[in-house]
Amino acid sequence: MEQKKLIQLRKKINKKRPSFRRVESWRYVRVKDPWRKARGIDSRTRIKSKSGVKSPSMGYRGPKKVRGLHPSGYEEVRVVNVNDIEGLNNKKHALKVSGKLGVKKRIALIDYAQSRGFKVLNLGISQKELEGLEAMLKSPIEDLDDDDLLDDED
Length: 154
Description:
The chain has helices at 2-16, 44-47, 103-115, 127-138, 146-149; strands spanning 75-79, 93-97, 119-120. By secondary structure, it is α/β, with parallel strands linked by helices. It has a three-stranded parallel β-sheet with strand order 1-2-3, with helices on one face.
């Protein structure tokens, strides 16, 4: 219950957090947007004047207990194979399946993870589509229609 409140608080803080832009990045094309500390001798931002650009500080951080967690409250873990799941806890960790995996290995890994009770964050497709893909993989090529294999060339 406490964690849900902290995640809501983090969401509220994130809305109020300004986008920290590099000083005068909006003015010159050669000055790129990512934040850099202002070092000029007369810089209003370095002096932390009200008229200067907001600079990052500790006060903008979120609550420590939920820092780095997924909005669902789980800790994200990137998974490539079944061995990566072995030491994880399904109450604490949620899985992100690597994008480098093909359909066959991805389906096998997702089935294994869901059977162990893990939440898969980047399923990407609905359960119905997943079952359709599994059926497609199991059926031999002769069963598929010629229309499925070749597109009409007009």
